[in-house]
Specification:
By secondary structure, this protein is an alpha+beta fold. The chain has a single domain, classed as Vaccinia Virus protein VP39 (Rossmann fold), CATH 3.40.50. The protein has six helices and five strands, in the order H-E-H-H-E-E-E-H-E-H-H. The protein has a five-stranded mixed beta sheet.
Length: 206
């Protein structure tokens, strides 16, 4: 995130795929989020579903923001969140994610007309996947966490809402195959001379 921020010009735009821990880590992670909200207009967060990556169990998000010139007042005024994860089930082979699965998000995003956005979530529609949080709302959250979700996970309370057994079984197989592939790569690296990972210099905070 810091590297991408440093590469952007003023008013430059970015959409960055980040793992969940970037959204809620304390310490340096909280500092980076605070600076990002201050120095950029962080306007959209897309919660991606699991089952779409080759690495097993990866929970990722896409964070959309624009770099702005320096000023005392934070540039982020409202963060819009789309939840494409809760109660959504995809697998790499049997049920891969497709472009059409993003249609509602794109319609809600309103490219070029973000000022006309309207929430689909309400007290009457608790299943709405699109809602917004003000900057003040975010400041009230512990460690300035951006790990935002509100839809009830049906798999925790209603087993009838789970995917069919064959889909669940294939998800397990996909995860095990991906895990085996990762362990194989690690073993191959460790078997080579000089296979130990080298340390990297951490850039200063935003």
């Amino acid at each position: 995130m810091q590297h991408i921020y440093s590469l952007l010009k003023i008013d430059g735009r970015a959409a960055v795929v980040v793992p969940d821990n970037v959204l809620f880590e304390g310490g340096a992670g909280e500092k980076v989020r605070r600076n990002l909200l201050q120095k950029c207009r962080v306007h959209t967060l897309l919660r991606l579903p699991t089952g779409i990556w080759y690495s097993p169990g990866v929970k990722a998000n896409v964070l959309f923001f624009e770099k702005k010139e320096g000023r005392a007042k934070p540039w982020t005024d409202k963060l819009w969140v789309y939840d494409l994860r809760t109660n959504m089930h995809f697998t790499l082979k049997q049920s891969p994610i497709q472009r059409k699965d993003f249609d509602e998000f794109v319609a809600c995003y309103k490219p070029g007309k973000t000022h006309t956005r309207k929430t689909t979530w309400s007290e009457e529609n608790l299943e709405g996947r699109w809602r917004s949080y003000t900057y003040d709302d975010l400041l009230k959250r512990d460690k300035l966490s951006l790990d935002l979700f509100w839809i009830k996970d049906k798999s925790l309370t209603d087993t009838d809402k789970l995917p069919p057994p064959d889909i669940l079984a294939q998800e397990v197989v996909d995860d095990l195959e991906a895990a085996l592939e990762q362990f194989t790569k690690i073993a191959q690296r460790l078997a080579k001379p000089g296979g130990e990972p080298r340390s990297h210099t951490v850039p200063p905070d935003l």
